[in-house]
Amino acid sequence: xxxxxxxxxxxxxxxxxxxxxxxxxxxxxxxxxxxxxxxxxxxxxxxxxxxxxxxxxxxxxxxxxxxxxxxxxxxxxxxxxxxxxxxxxxxxxxxxxxxxxxxxxxxxxxxxxxxxxxxxxxxxxxxxxxxxxxxxxxxxxxxxxxxxxxxxxxxxxxxxxxxxxxxxxxxxxxxxxxxxxxxxxxxxxxxxxxxxxxxxxxxxxxxxxxxxxxxxxxxxxxxxxxxxxxxxxxxxxxxxxxxxxxxxxx
Amino acid sequence: xxxxxxxxxxxxxxxxxxxxxxxxxxxxxxxxxxxxxxxxxxxxxxxxxxxxxxxxxxxxxxxxxxxxxxxxxxxxxxxxxxxxxxxxxxxxxxxxxxxxxxxxxxxxxxxxxxxxxxxxxxxxxxxxxxxxxxxxxxxxxxxxxxxxxxxxxxxxxxxxxxxxxxxxxxxxxxxxxxxxxxxxxxxxxxxxxxxxxxxxxxxxxxxxxxxxxxxxxxxxxxxxxxxxxxxxxxxxxxxxxxxxxxxxxx
DNA sequence: CGACGGTTTGACAATCATCAAATACAGTGG
DNA sequence: CCACTGTATTTGATGATTGTCAAACCGTCG
Lengths: 250, 250
Known about the structure:
The structure is a homodimer.
Chain A: H1 4-10, H2 13-21, H3 26-37, E1 40-42, E2 47-49, E3 59-63, E4 66-71, E5 77-83, E6 88-89, E7 102-105, E8 109-113, H4 124-150, H5 153-170, E9 178-180, H6 185-192, H7 196-208, E10 212-215, E11 218-221, H8 224-231
Helix pairs in contact in A: 2-4, 4-5, 5-7, 5-8, 6-7
The structure holds a DNA duplex.
């Protein structure tokens, strides 16, 4: 699980993802590659950023899964979104930004500083990739709101699995209909506004109906089209040009 | 309701709001003022932007209430957020952006193009105000996720009312604990992931417990502190400098 | 082996949805 | 001024979805 080859192939997720978002030149790719060299690791379940803390640098997730979350006073937790390899967190334009949510590692995670864009220079592609990444983040947040507000437990789970599939695919990670999803049922519950008990029962229903398999940290989508239909899933689109082809696969 | 004085005082909401977000110079204020002169109106319940449509210009809400929403295939609707006077919609950095949600007027609304910022020039304040506005929009979206995922109907309503109060106050609109809220119970239901029937009963409970009044499109917060306590409401903070004073009032 | 975190199961309760009807309210035209 | 219309609010009866609590099971790791 930690061989050199595996590690090398994992650390290119940011490059794959950002390249799919916009045309990135050689010098920009070199910057990215250089940044990922300086990656640091964060242990599983450790905080990367606390709510209310100043944000020092935009950060790229190089490998592993992280999430944004909020805690209510009585301990209830809501997961606001996930940060997958190639995702960017803390890209703010206002001066002296502070974090509006906590960010914590789910699995062991490696992160690195996002290369700054020099205005006017030939960082056009990178700037566009950052912008598209930010727009996608918003789109996924809107997905999340819709799931929570207007979908049943069954639909929510299906929708979330499809979103993971799409996003991991864009980072060059999954093969076919199977992908790694290192979330406990408690994480899923805190994500989808349900209890872990209900997640368990809903997963059983999805299995019973041969829609998907989920065990040992892996998910297999047995009927992606049927899932997309019941969950009303539509791939995210935030601009005219790129990534129209994002879902054609399998 | 439509006297000249009223109209004049309404159209300054963008200026008030953006000025509270960042230090805006005279020339920038003049630009804003000029932009609001070119405002156009949209009838109640009309669409301002459709999901999937290209976004041509960032737009400022000058007066009235609008919302972002998504429709599921079977007609279920989820309201993703509200656009109040002074709010900005469609501020994207990626090329050829397309809308990830519909935007529609709730009341009659007037909108205008957001003045572009000239790089390098003395539009620093305006740029900062736009950036903070965008960050606040994200913070409110996270509020929304938390409400939907982890709060009861009672808490959701209380939380939303407090958010309206805070946001309207920042646009210079409410007086004391009373403000106008032109939402039907069906809008509230589609916002909070509930049915209008349940909204009705929850409002009755809030009234019965003397927490708030709500009728004829107006809301009075009778016990704002108690409401904030039960809803675990915290005013949004997205940067170090400004608007720390945002909630002190009443 | 024992401890631990995660999953699974069962019995039961609470929140919230559904359906249908009654009531209130604002605007419109006679 | 009043019936007429349409929309929004309110109420009641009933049911489905989801939560709570508690215990059993299962795999992994020291």
